[in-house]
Amino acid sequence: MIERAVHIDSGGGLVGIITEPEGGGTQGQPTFVFLNAGLTHRVGPSRLHVRMARALAAQGFSSLRLDWSGLGDSGVRDDAVPVGESIIAETREAMDFLTNTTGAQRFILIGICSGATVSFLTAQRDERAVGVALINAQSHLHGESAELGEALRARTMTRHSYRMALRSSFSRKNWRKALGGQIPIGKVVLSMFMAPARAILGRVRGGASPALDPMAETRVLTDRGVRVLHLYSEGDEGLDYFQEVLGGRGAERMAEVGAETEIMLGANHVFTLLWTQDRLTTAVCEWARSFAIPPAD
After folding, report:
1. In 3D, which of 103, 96, 100 has the Cα closest to residue 29?
2. For the purposes of burial, counting CB atoms within 10 Å of the CB of 69, is it exposed (0-12), middle (13-18) or buried (19 or more)?
3. Would you tell me which of 25, 33, 150, 252 could form a disulfide with 62, CB atoms 3.0–4.6 Å apart?
4. pTM
5. What ranges make up the beta strands (E) of 85-233?
6. CA-based nearest residue to 241, from 202, 214, 266, 216
7. Helical (H) or strand (E) element with 31
8. Per-residue pLDDT in tens (0 to 9) along the chain, 297 residues
9. DSSP state string for 211-252
């Protein structure tokens, strides 16, 4: 593989790292664009972006690991564009840059946590995206309703607290931590019971949540032929958001519109354990193979 730093001429002075197969990638094959996870710079949590980009290069895929403005080596924007808009605009600027400098026309957007959400939103706006790999995504399936988002957030945390305490492979470890004083058990119990109390109070007061069609957001992409992969860690609250929004048949409902879902048992939010990093990298590479274009003879 070959790696090189690039400077993207934009309002934020964006910087990224391009990883290419030795000899260049296959013409016409989509290029991966890795987006920041929270405030973590382009290496990704536990250096996962580096691992995945290099593994993809071994399969013939080029990629860009991007730093949004204000992160890593990218400069700070000098305008007043809200961050929710600027990071989508900067992702599209990075795609423009790749088109102009490498000839890439098709892109697969990939990210962890907030990077996954931005991948999803950017793909909805830009038809050059042919795939999105959403790792521990949340807050992306209920539209723009702040009221609905707040209600879902509360219910998600309740579900997550119950699941981590009673119905996950982390349960025994978490109870040991709680009994040893490493986890504030009072806050966990409060989280488990406050959200149902709020929901009951809302119904008593006659409050009603806005209508929710969680599949509509995904259909925007799959109807266009975009391949969508939801990949969740067992220990991540994003999985609880996914299940809260879609119900117990979340994966089946996604499959009905052509989207894929995979849950990695034993993995936490940032894939701390090396075997979970290997498994995630393998899962992404296996999914990527369906995009591969055989090299010309």
Report:
1. 103
2. buried
3. 25
4. 0.87
5. 107-112, 129-135, 227-233
6. 214
7. strand 31-35
8. 899 999 997 555 899 999 999 887 667 899 999 999 999 999 999 999 999 999 999 999 999 999 999 999 998 888 888 998 999 999 999 999 999 999 999 999 999 999 999 999 999 999 999 999 999 999 899 887 777 778 888 788 888 877 877 766 776 776 666 667 666 766 666 656 665 555 444 444 444 445 678 899 999 999 999 999 999 999 899 999 999 899 878 899 999 999 999 999 999 999 999 999 999 999 999 999 998 776 655
9. P--HHHHHHHHHTTT-EEEEEEETT-HHHHHHHHHH-TTHHH
- The identity of residue 171, as a single letter, is S
Question: How long is the chain?
Answer: 297
Tokens of 121: 């939103």
